[in-house]
Specification:
By secondary structure, this protein is an alpha+beta fold. The chain has one domain. Helix content is about 25%, strand content about 20%. The chain contains three helices and six strands. The strands form two sheets. A three-stranded antiparallel beta sheet has the order 1-2-3. Strand 5 and strand 6 form a beta hairpin. The termini are far apart.
């Protein structure tokens, strides 16, 4: 019985330790060593339609950096930790809103008026109309 408890603890603790080492924060920028991407630690509190979200990121100067962009769906989903819930995000260094969607730059191929989004409440991804207003998390 004691061996089973140790195995379970290792299964829970080791992934969390690895996640913690994966992300580092410098000022207000979070670095992901796995993907080698840099993320805003404090995304905009304003919602944007898809086109405005892309413009927001491409025109953003944040922590002295101006090469920000809207992440593609794979980059955005790389932040999801499916072993977590509310929030299902792999780091607590990014101040996201868990109860709403975040835009990706990826268009939905079966509907040219839609694009992919991620909900960090549970890590669920889906496509929505690009005219809808959604939160933005920029990457570089």
């Amino acid at each position: 019985m004691n061996r089973i408890v140790k195995i379970l603890l290792i299964g829970v603790l080791v992934p969390n330790i690895l996640w913690a080492e994966r992300f580092t924060k410098n000022g207000e920028i979070v670095y992901d060593s796995k993907t080698e991407l840099y993320w805003q630690s404090k995304p905009s509190n304003k919602k944007f339609n898809w086109s405005s979200a892309k413009n927001y990121c491409s025109n953003l100067t944040y922590e002295g950096k101006s090469d920000w962009r809207l992440p593609n769906i794979d980059e955005l989903k790389s932040l999801v930790d499916y072993s977590r819930y509310k929030p299902a995000i792999a780091t607590n260094l990014i101040d996201i809103k868990i109860d709403d969607w975040y835009w990706s730059s990826s268009k939905y191929v079966n509907d040219s008026s839609s694009a992919w989004v991620v909900l960090f409440d549970d890590g669920y991804d889906f496509w929505v109309k690009r005219s809808r207003t959604v939160y933005v998390l920029c990457v570089r």
